[in-house]
């Protein structure tokens, strides 16, 4: 192994670390995609890609927005796991352009040509998995290979989504498998970072009881969740699925309570992680009731999608962006309001879809809140992502 020090990075700040281009792209896309979806849903905008409007909306939230966040997280976390230098510069730019090509292709840049669109769109996740696997193996960081399997299943879900749309006109298994894999990744990664960050924060108070560390109960929660989510993917209706989802909802509600979230109310940047995770058992319980035929399906899907996935990803992007750009880990009023908008959007879409408030239905209220939440993120965090770390700039690094 060479003892030569790595050369200082002299390129644009936006390409200096994985979180920068992908978190910025994810937030910009999230803020734009829902207004586009509203236009398509209302008939005022035509999308000329291979998907029907509903499938475009589902696909781009699951495999457009979420894939950018996952890429940003992985290429920021992996250097910490392996001790290797992060991917930066031209390789990172090429990967970001590949993600953008997928969004344009799905939106209709290639017209209604489903096979080329699928290849271009799937190429991004295939590249992410290849680069992540290469770095983890090169760093001999074997324990973190665990993230590769669900990420590979995520790619399979995307391919399934495309194939179903080509053959039957709309997705079915692909959309549920996409939800299942992203939810499972949040359970896996959230189970690491939430109690760890909470433990560090509570350590300042020597009398505080720390979160319960990962043990067999957490393993049971993850294994049972994986089994229940796969059952739901294959068979979304029926009492076996309903009971499995309700049981997993209870387990993950108990898991969350072990992390001492109620003690974090004075630290919004930390509390929002707990709140976002809480949407997972709520969404799973609602999906369980839907599987039993007791309630409609959309509320559970939107509690998982907007509250669980949207809430957790924006909370992680806030914390990682602040920490890795040399800013204080404090949400402040703007970011706290931004996260609050996402959480409120989940509640509005799940519970108020048929209600009216100030002349707006819950569908529109949720869309406004979601868009506002990401615009606030962009106003506060966007400049940090495009500028060098101030500490490194002062040190002329």
Automatic annotation (TrEMBL):
It comes from the Bacteria. The chain crosses the membrane at residues 21-41, 61-78, 90-111, 117-138, 145-165, 177-194, 214-232, 238-257, 269-295, 301-322, 334-352, 364-386. The keyword Membrane applies. The keyword Repressor does not apply. Keywords: Membrane, Transmembrane, Transmembrane helix. This is Uncharacterized protein involved in response to NO. The lineage of its organism: Bacteria, Pseudomonadati, Pseudomonadota, Alphaproteobacteria, Rhodobacterales.
